[in-house]
Amino acid sequence: MRHLDEIAAPGTPERALLERIDPHRLPRHVAIIMDGNGRWAKARHLPRVEGHRAGIRAVRETVETVAELEVSVLTLYAFSTENWKRPRYEVLTLMGLLKEYLRSELETFRSNNLRFRPIGRIEELDASVRRELDHAVEATSASTGSLVQIALNYSGRQELTDVLRSAVAAGADGQLQPDTIDEAWVDAHLGTAGLPDPDLLVRTSGEQRISNFLLWQLAYAEIYFTPVLWPDFAKRDLLEAIVDFQHRERRFGGLPETEKGLFTPPGGLSAGS
Fold first, then answer.
1. CB 191, CB 159: distance < 8 Å
2. Which of 75, 136, 203, 271 is surrounded by the fewest CB atoms within 10 Å?
3. Among 5, 37, 83, 179, which one carries the catalytic annotation?
4. Is the dihedral of CA 229, 204, 161, 171 positive or negative?
5. Are 93 and 108 in contact (CB under 8 A)?
6. HSE (CB half, 13 Å, CA atoms) of 100?
7. Which residues face 116 on adjacent strands?
8. Does 35 fall in a domain?
9. pLDDT per position in the chain (273 positions), as tens?
10. How far apart are CA 226 and CA 17, in angstroms?
């Protein structure tokens, strides 16, 4: 984590939150479902697309905060496979805003030593969108800092379906035996291969569901729901989520440290036997 003075000025609410964060216990991977753009616009009697446009500011501030905290991975849920059901003009606007964001924020990525990568069925996107994505990946490939992933045309169920298809195809060719398939094999065939699973999932706008996002990878994630609509999401909100995360006891199916050794396992053996 960078020096506190580089992240927030003394005396600000953001600085107070930073002083409560243990830099040695930061989540390695933060995933965010960016929700509430439409409701933000409706509350202001604006077209829905203006909510998406306003959401770009929240993306910028979140990305910069992740770089300052030196969180290893940030994954943003930008466009699901279900989002194709939205009106055509809204989809076109979203894709246009994505291209605009990639062009305008490239220097932000470089100056913050950030790498960029999209995940999802990218090959199904328009060629103009793919060109901008490829350019952003190439332009940030030498960076060594945080990885920013944007999930586009993404579906957790489709991702797992694709893994199953890979397994069936490899088995039919004799390249894969059933007992070869384990969790590590599945991990290696996901779009997030080689990365730590998310430790923290944040969803904005008050909705409390994961909406087909990173279904395999979120198995042990801590989930933080906030009523803040995405265009209003700021550095303070992300810091609050991390403070909450650090107050949770992550057991991964085991016992809390305070309770270990208090129970006798079957057979009467002591826990230390």
1. yes
2. 271
3. 83
4. positive
5. no
6. 13
7. 148
8. yes
9. 999 999 999 999 999 999 999 999 999 999 999 999 999 999 999 999 999 999 999 999 999 999 999 999 999 999 999 999 999 999 999 999 999 999 999 999 999 999 999 999 999 999 999 999 999 999 999 999 999 999 999 999 999 999 999 999 988 888 888 888 999 999 999 999 999 999 999 999 999 999 999 999 999 999 999 999 999 999 999 999 999 999 998 877 666 666 665 555 555 444 443
10. 16
Domain of 209: which CATH number?
3.40.1180.10
- List the Cα angle 37/38/41 in 5-degree steps: 90
Catalytic residue among 5, 22, 35, 179: 35
Q: Which amino acid is located at 156 in the chain?
A: G
Q: Is 35 a catalytic residue?
A: yes
Instruction: Report the C-alpha gap between 160 and 154 in whole angstroms.
Output: 11
What would the two tokens of residue 25 be? 């216990």
